[in-house]
Design goal:
180 residues, 10 strands, globular
Amino acid sequence: MRNSIINILSITAIIFGSISTGYTEEVQEPPPYEPSAAFKQIEKLEGSWAGKLWSSHNDEYIDLKLDYKVISARSTIVETVVEGETEMISLYHEKDNVLRMKHYCALRTQPELDLSERSDTALSFVHAPGTDLVEGQDDFVNSYKISYDPETPNELKTYYTVTFADGQMWNRKGTLTRVD
């Protein structure tokens, strides 16, 4: 009986050892990822920013905080946005060689915006074609612009437009400084 238990344990150890070894031999590292110049521009924003956000609909300013973090083996950038007391996130990633932003909004929509224009100091995004949000029917962010000059690395400006199902449009402008 004792020899049977030892044999079963030995066989079990051999089986699990070969499963584990076989698995590690098959796992390969993904090839190095080289992002676009636009993605690299947003990478430069990594860290924390604070400032004020102006809104056209009420001509008021509220506190604005942005945090940028590069994740997923340098394939995604998370932008955490806090407008007043409202926290949201946006994800930047490249899809089919286009830099795309997906915004998880307090309006309970998730608009997707594609890079439409790039310069050395600005990135502009517009509502991506073929997504499920429609102007005049849904409430969502339909454009976003980041203005950042590497020669003034502690200053950042953002601009965005929100369209509403009832035809209203809000323009918002953020002015921030790097805090970390």
